[in-house]
């Protein structure tokens, strides 16, 4: 008998792709795809069960199909694939849905492996954050709201489940911002804007992981570990290297509009109100302070090596979005010219101030 894998969040783009991918695993006999809404894409030979993980019916699904592996992908920062799409519905699915799912897994005698999709946003975003977050790092302050708070709460419930069911291998994957040709995250929407608002005086460092690498590492975590590796624990998942936000805008060919932080917050609220993009406060913090994580455990313990670097993941995403308002070369030259002018202005201004003091 092969594995019986249950995947939540199957109606979303990433969930649907993983459902189709995991069916090709020779260890897998059956795949049960679960979501509250019908998927807009094909799921191959998987059995789709329309059920809301916020309801107790998920326990019956686990029992009926004797599920031994659960891959929980219904933890998301966007509204795609969620009926209604309101923030309250997203939060309920993330947090209440996870609680119900874990309760069902705890009672199931057949479940032996649990994989949970999380996010590096659990580290928060603050001016005194470390340059690089290891898996063991604790944020200076817990996220105040939004998806980051949801992910932190989800991880707390998962740790409690792991203590109650030590016989279940639990793997939490903290993904950096996911990009690729099919990316449908709030950050992908931001990078697709013709003009990108930025925070004046800040040029944050960003890390990305390619959507194909996400599928590969999810598949690895759902399988039995290879000799010398473990697929239980908490792992940061990101491509090598970092990109500055200014580099991203150049490579996209999209100009930026630097604004004071209060103005960026107001613009973000206005964009959310008209449905242009989910420009949330936590995304503003990311675009202010950035976030970079360490991935040594991903390689040394989990045994996973991403195919794409941060720059390569972004380049693949950029190609799928087409050319921006300006050719990237012109944007780059304009930014460099502005930087030289600012340097000259500062160097000329300092002697005047010193002279005035004398």
Automatic annotation (TrEMBL):
Top-rank taxon: Bacteria
NAD-dependent epimerase/dehydratase domain location: 5-237
Protein name per UniProt: NAD-dependent dehydratase
A Pfam short name: Epimerase
InterPro entries in the cross-refs: Epimerase_deHydtase (IPR001509), Lipid_A_modif_metabolic_enz (IPR050177), NAD(P)-bd_dom_sf (IPR036291)
Organism for this UniProt entry: Streptomyces venezuelae
């Amino acid at each position: 008998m092969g594995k019986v894998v249950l995947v939540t969040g199957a109606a979303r783009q990433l969930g649907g792709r993983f459902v189709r991918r995991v069916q090709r695993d020779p260890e897998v006999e059956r795949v049960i795809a679960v979501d509250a809404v019908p998927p807009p894409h094909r799921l191959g030979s998987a059995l789709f069960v329309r059920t809301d993980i916020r309801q107790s019916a998920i326990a019956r699904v686990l029992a009926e199909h004797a599920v031994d592996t659960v891959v929980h992908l219904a933890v998301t920062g966007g509204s795609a694939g969620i009926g209604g799409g309101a923030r309250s519905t997203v939060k309920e699915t993330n947090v209440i849905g996870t609680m119900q799912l874990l309760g069902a897994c705890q009672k199931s005698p057949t479940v032996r492996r649990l994989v949970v999709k999380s996010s590096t946003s659990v580290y928060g975003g603050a001016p005194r954050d470390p340059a690089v977050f290891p898996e063991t790092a604790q944020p200076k302050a817990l996220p105040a709201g939004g998806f980051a708070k949801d992910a932190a709460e989800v991880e707390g419930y998962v740790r409690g489940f792991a203590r109650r069911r030590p016989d279940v291998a639990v793997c939490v994957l903290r993904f950096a911002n996911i990009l690729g040709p099919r990316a449908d995250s709030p950050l992908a929407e931001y990078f697709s804007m013709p003009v990108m608002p930025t925070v004046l005086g800040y040029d944050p460092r960003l890390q990305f992981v390619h959507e194909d690498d996400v599928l590969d590492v999810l598949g690895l975590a759902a399988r039995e570990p290879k000799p010398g590796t473990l697929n239980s624990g908490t792992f940061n998942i990101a491509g090598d290297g970092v990109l500055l936000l200014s580099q991203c805008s150049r490579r996209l060919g999209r100009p930026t509009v630097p604004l004071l932080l209060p103005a960026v917050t107001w613009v973000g609220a206005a964009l959310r109100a008209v449905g242009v993009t989910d420009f949330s406060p936590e995304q503003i913090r990311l675009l202010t302070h950035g976030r970079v994580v360490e991935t040594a455990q991903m390689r040394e313990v989990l045994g996973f090596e991403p195919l794409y670097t941060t720059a390569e993941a972004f380049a693949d995403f950029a190609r799928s979005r087409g050319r921006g308002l300006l050719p990237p070369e012109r944007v780059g030259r304009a930014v460099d010219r502005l930087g030289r002018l600012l340097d000259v202005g500062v160097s000329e201004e300092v002697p005047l101030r010193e002279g005035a003091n004398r």
